User: Which sequence fits this backbone?
């Protein structure tokens, strides 16, 4: 499988204290562990099990995902922009890989 | 049998009818039920009383495709240090695993709201449980009728 590619929609500028909705999507099969291959053998589970959003290193929001999450998982949520800073979004795979996406938002 | 996508499903359809019937019947017993969900909730909150309300759950009444069912929610809360939503857990009463997702909020989040997309194996109830910073626990339930399960059958 190709390396999962995160996509994030977040404005690059905001007013101080503004509440914005962040929309994220990452390409990932989210193999549930329930399917069988053509020879009838179960396909092992491999999903992204956690999503973490933080601002300037401080955690804001976290999601634990189970195999019931659809392929190419979508996650939207709300953040407040107190000051100019960097939002970091991390996706943690079952195999331990962490996919990261960083976004600077400027208060002006 | 759940969550079979296009390629595998076509392989199934190509097999003899007998094999297909066996595949359809056998795994239904492996699905979760309302009791398993109740047990999971009891594991988290014990015998604590659970109130109705405060959770606005947005799920379709009828989902045509069980592989991608949009789920949005919002829990009423001022989201301050003193009074905020700590977590929201989602459970499915008819999926292979009762757990769906769990969200952890902090007072830095302005709203206890989020959207995801989930897989549903069949028509079933989705249960949301929200825990507040003062320890109160709230619950909301919604039934989703699934036309084509996220299981190719």
Assistant:
């Amino acid at each position: 499988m190709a390396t999962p590619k995160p996509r994030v929609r977040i404005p690059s500028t905001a007013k101080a204290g503004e509440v914005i909705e962040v929309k994220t999507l990452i390409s990932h099969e989210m193999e549930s562990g329930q399917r069988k291959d053509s020879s009838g053998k179960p396909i092992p589970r491999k999903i992204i099990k956690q999503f973490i959003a933080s601002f300037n290193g401080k955690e804001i929001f976290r999601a634990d995902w189970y195999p019931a999450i659809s392929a190419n998982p979508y996650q939207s949520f709300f953040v407040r922009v107190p000051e100019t800073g960097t939002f970091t979004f991390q996706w943690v795979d079952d195999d331990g890989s962490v996919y990261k996406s960083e976004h600077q938002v400027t208060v002006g | 049998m759940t969550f079979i996508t296009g390629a595998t499903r076509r392989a199934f359809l190509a097999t003899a009818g007998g094999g297909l019937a066996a595949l359809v019947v056998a795994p239904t017993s492996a699905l979760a039920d309302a009791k398993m969900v109740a047990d999971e909730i009891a594991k988290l909150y014990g015998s604590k009383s659970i109130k109705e309300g405060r959770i606005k759950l947005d799920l379709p009444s009828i989902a045509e495709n069980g592989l991608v069912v949009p789920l949005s929610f919002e829990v009423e809360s001022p989201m301050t240090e003193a009074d905020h939503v700590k977590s929201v857990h989602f459970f499915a009463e008819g999926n292979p695993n009762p757990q769906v997702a769990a969200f952890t909020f902090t007072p830095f989040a302005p709203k206890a709201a989020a959207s995801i997309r989930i897989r549903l194996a069949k028509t079933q109830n989705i249960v949301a449980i929200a825990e507040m910073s003062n320890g109160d626990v709230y619950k909301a339930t919604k039934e989703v009728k699934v036309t084509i399960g996220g299981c190719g059958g």
